[in-house]
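INTERNAL TRANSFER SHEET
From: sequence group
To: structure group
Subject: Aldo/keto reductase

Please process the attached sequence and return the structure record in the designated field. Keep the field labels unchanged so the import script can parse them.
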Amino acid sequence: MKQVKIAGQVVPAIGIGTWHMGDRPAQRETEIAAIQAGISAGARVIDTAEMYGSGRAETLVGAALQPFSRQQLFLISKVLPENASRQRMEASLDASLQRLQTDYLDLYLYHWRGDVPLAETVAELQRLQTTGKIRAWGVSNFDVADLRELWQLPGGDQAAANEDLYHLGSRGLDYAVLPWQAEHDLPLIAYSPIAQGDAWGQQLTTNDTVKQIALTHQATVYQVLLAWVIRQPQVLAIPQTSSVAHMEQNLAAGDLILSPKELAALDQQYPRPTHKERLDII
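Return from structure group:
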């Protein structure tokens, strides 16, 4: 399985996303089983946030992780903009840790930019890292201008990752963000890497080229989409699913290598941007 290095740890390039999980009590056991199946299939990274279900996703993750060794997992959560201040962040982090039933996070992300000055948020993230409650920190939904601003702040270049929306139908990062992150050795965490099952009408899963590549590899179209996202170094994909079977298929996509010819065919269908595009955020 392809791997990436993030916050000093080498982890499989496909992890587990948890957005929209924990919202339906009737699905609780199914969702826990899916997360546990992913870990059993080799996933190490589990990505969640205090925003997801107003803490319900973190509570679900906390329950799902109990049978496993905490040291073998790489746990990510995120702080909301309104909680990203010197006065509120630690209490927000403590609440996340309590829901997750752990005493530390491997990575704590600033979910998106709000009204708190970025310098204050960075300083507090740096301080929390010294407490041991977080092993590393990073950002999310940052565009290239935000990253440049971050790098100019004291300690800003200590960020361990940036998490942005990225999939075959949303390639804006290819123009500036990904080259900048590669130059500065900043890993990308790609959320919604399979476009939430064509939620935005790009018809990725019904595209003839995608389907043909899947057939060639005896893979699913979703596995092809994941293999495309992690085709380059230092990109970690975090697909979400509540299905055990789909979870196992997602993890297996880490072994799928697309040929240069196949990548060129996908580029033709979904071209690389030729100019700066607005950062996609959902």
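Handover comment: The chain has a mean pLDDT of 96. The chain has one domain: 8-269.
Transfer complete.
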